[in-house]
Structure formats: C-alpha cells, structure tokens
Amino acid sequence: MSWTFGNWWGISRLARRIISMFPSTHRCEAAFSALSKIKCRNRNRLSLQHTTEALRIAVSSAEPDFNSLVRQKECQKSH
C-alpha cells in the first residue's frame, strides 16, 4: 500500500475522532465509574442495548423538562 495524501488524511481524520471521544481522562473515568455502577451484581443481566442506554443517560448532562412532558400526556379517563 502506498502512502498518499488521501490515505494520510483519512487516518488523521480517524485519529482526531478517536481522540475527541474523551477530551479528558476525567470523562473517561466518570464513564467507567458509571458503567461499573450500572453493571453491578444485581443488574448483570442487562442487555447490551439497555446497558448502552443507561450509560448514555448516566454520563449525559442533559436535564429533562418534566413540566413539558407532563403537559403532553393525557390523563386516563375512567370507563
């Protein structure tokens, strides 16, 4: 394989993406700590999808707007 500018650009782009995943070791350690809490002895049977979703929620800084969510729901009327 000959190294051309195009190949080097692709490798450089990939390296920047990987490095930017965790801009500091603090975020990486926080994610690992959250994962160890999620995958404890009592919850070791979580599927990969559920574990991924729980980890995403644990490390996210987004705050849900509960008032908006409640306004969107309708009360269940009795029969």
UniProtKB/TrEMBL annotation:
Record-given protein name: Uncharacterized protein
Organism: Chaenocephalus aceratus
